[in-house]
Design brief:
This protein is mainly alpha-helical and 146 residues long. It has one domain: Arc Repressor Mutant, subunit A. Helices cover 68% and strands 8% of the residues. The chain starts with a helix and ends with a helix. 14% of the residues are buried.
């Protein structure tokens, strides 16, 4: 039996509001305060998926290629990414994350996990409630990564 339209709408509203508020709180924890969310997202993409062209990064992050070029310029100046000529097409450039960029991503993940764990510990959840949250997170991943 599938959920009613009203139930789906109420769930969507509640989930959106909770996810938005949680994301906003977690975004405040990062390894480099001067780094934008967009720059961090690019580093995370490179860490997770490996080298990419500027065009592919722009498409993934839903920005224009010139905007992504500017972002990559800034990350390159800080030593977080490097550009290398494409082996098959010398006109194209690949972008790779550096060890320093990987460290920024890892530190930010640690800080955000620590912040969320602290937030959870303040609420004195039971083991059953924590299990429910883990189950909910699995369902949320199913929604965003079908």
């Amino acid at each position: 039996m599938s959920a009613s339209d009203e139930s789906l709408q109420l769930t969507a509203t509640d989930l959106r509001m909770a996810a938005f508020r949680l994301a906003r709180r977690l975004r405040s924890a990062r390894a480099v305060d001067a780094m934008s969310d967009a720059q961090l997202a690019v580093l995370a993409t490179l860490r997770m998926h490996g080298r990419r062209t500027i065009t592919a990064l722009a498409e993934r992050e839903r920005v224009t290629a010139p905007s992504m070029t500017n972002m990559i310029n800034g990350l390159e100046e800080q030593g977080f990414v490097v550009r290398t000529p494409d082996a098959e097409d010398r006109r194209r450039v690949q972008v790779d994350i550096t060890d320093a960029g990987t460290e920024i991503v890892m530190q930010t993940i640690r800080r955000r996990d620590e912040l969320l764990a602290a937030m959870l510990s303040e609420l004195d959840f039971t083991e059953k409630e924590l299990a429910t949250l883990r189950e909910a997170s699995a369902l949320m991943r199913k929604v965003v990564d079908p």
